[in-house]
Structure formats: structure tokens, C-alpha cells
Write a structure and sequence with these properties.
This protein has 6 helices and no strands. It has 135 residues and is mainly α. The protein has one domain.
Length: 135
């Protein structure tokens, strides 16, 4: 399997997975939130912030799939590298607020690495692509 195909598979998996997470936050916010890693979640009217997270996650996934569908692979690579800051920030937030260290590192830390690797592969494939020869 070549770099381009791996980057495509990783992008599709990442885009679809984060859309799934977002939909889960919209329809099952309390259930989904318990696996995030923080020790407590907003209650009552403040629980609306869980829907905000869901919308953010769906938007992130749609951006990934839209750039892939538009064949904007280099732009997707740059965007994906920037998006790696989201799970990294989630990891730091969980650690800062005395949440589950295991979840912070295993779920959010590894996600940040996966997202950054995907972005790096998308950018790298441009470097290794054959240069067309003029006839």
C-alpha cells in the first residue's frame, strides 16, 4: 500500500469517526461524555455545552471529508496537522482538571498522534509524487 492510499484511508477513518463522536454528543451527550476523561460534566442547562462539542466534532469531520472529496490533499494535510491541536488540547485539559490520565494519554494523546501522522502523510505524498514530464 502506498503513502497516498494510506493517507486516504486514515483521512476517511478520521473523518467518519469524529462525525460519529459528534452525533453521539448530540443524541447521547451524558453517556458519551462519561468516556471523555474529565471527572465531571455540566449539569442542567449547562449540559448544552455537550451539544456544542458535538457540533464542533461533526464540523471537523465534514471539513476532512470535503477537502478529500475536492481532491485538495495538500490543503487537507495542512488542515489535518492544525486539527491535531484539538485532541492534544483535549488531552491537556483532562490532565489539567485532574481527569483520567489513562484516557487523556490513550484516547486523546494517541488521537493527536494519529491525526498529525495523517496530515504528515498527506503533505509527504506531495513531495514523493512523480513530476510530470512535458512532451
Amino acid at each position: 500500500m502506498n503513502v497516498s492510499r494510506i493517507a486516504t484511508v486514515f483521512s476517511v477513518i478520521g473523518g467518519l469517526f469524529i462525525i460519529y463522536v459528534g452525533v453521539s454528543y448530540l443524541f447521547l451527550p451524558e453517556t458519551t461524555a462519561s468516556g471523555f476523561g474529565l471527572p465531571a460534566w455540566p449539569q442542567g442547562d449547562a449540559a448544552g455545552f455537550l451539544n456544542v462539542k458535538g457540533v464542533r466534532d461533526i464540523g471537523t469531520g465534514v471539513i476532512i471529508l470535503a477537502l478529500l472529496a475536492a481532491k485538495q490533499r495538500y490543503a487537507l494535510g495542512i488542515t489535518t496537522l492544525a486539527m491535531a491541536l484539538i485532541p492534544f488540547g483535549d488531552m491537556l485539559t483532562i490532565l489539567r482538571w485532574d481527569g483520567s490520565t489513562a484516557t487523556a494519554l490513550s484516547v486523546h494523546g494517541l488521537t493527536a498522534v494519529f491525526v498529525a501522522l495523517t496530515g504528515a502523510l498527506l503533505i509527504w505524498e506531495r513531495r514523493i509524487a512523480p513530476v510530470p514530464v512535458a512532451a
